[in-house]
Design a protein that fits this description.
This protein has 193 residues and is an all-alpha fold. The chain has helices at residues 7-15, 19-41, 44-61, 71-90, 100-113, 118-132, 136-147, 152-159, 163-185, 189-192.
């Protein structure tokens, strides 16, 4: 029954004391929250921690959600700020592109949810691998736009910047993604794009 309820209805039930409604919200958004956290942290354990912190923060702040945007946009802004705070605290090197563990972790995350053919899994792997090589900001914009299906305005709200800036950043992130794919795949890039 609760799976058919909208996010707003689940929020209202949660605020009325129904814990299972919030559990359903978490289940509905956990995969994408984890994916976005992974784009920033580039480490499965840190991404899990960031995702868990985000859902705790969202729960504690649920009464402040004003419904001026979609719940997912509000939640993803929490992911963004939590991940950035975590990166600052750990002073991680976010520019490393040679982390084999990250590639294996992304492959595992992708393969858990991808039931398509081997060719689609391969494409997904190479795209995820290229996205992981981008800066956290570029990876976030690509992820929010394509996987999160967020509009430019929603991404702007999530990141706290103007929609025109998002458009420019998205264009540049696509260019860098293409460069990473070309570097990683050389001749096969034309088939992927």
């Amino acid at each position: 029954m609760q799976s058919k309820l909208s996010d707003i209805e689940l929020i209202q039930k949660t605020l009325a004391g129904d814990q299972s409604a919030y559990a359903h919200l978490v289940k509905r958004h956990q995969r994408f929250v984890f994916t976005l956290a992974m784009r920033f942290t580039k480490n499965r354990e840190d991404a899990e921690e960031v995702a868990q912190d985000c859902f705790i923060k969202a729960y504690r702040s649920l009464s402040s959600f004003k419904q001026e945007s979609k719940f997912s946009t509000w939640l993803y802004s929490i992911v963004y700020t939590t991940a950035m705070t975590s990166l600052r605290k750990k002073k991680m090197d976010t520019s490393s592109i040679d982390d084999e563990d990250t590639d294996i972790q992304i492959a595992n995350v992708s393969s858990e949810y991808d039931a398509n053919s081997a060719e689609n899994r391969s494409r997904s792997f190479y795209l995820n691998q290229a996205i992981e090589q981008l800066s956290p900001d570029d990876a976030a914009i690509i992820t929010l736009f394509y996987k999160g299906e967020q509009s430019l305005e929603e991404i702007a709200q999530t990141l706290g910047i103007e929609a025109n800036s998002v458009k420019v950043k998205l264009f540049r992130a696509r260019q860098r993604l293409k460069e990473k794919l070309e570097h990683n795949l050389k001749h096969e890039v034309n088939e992927l794009i």
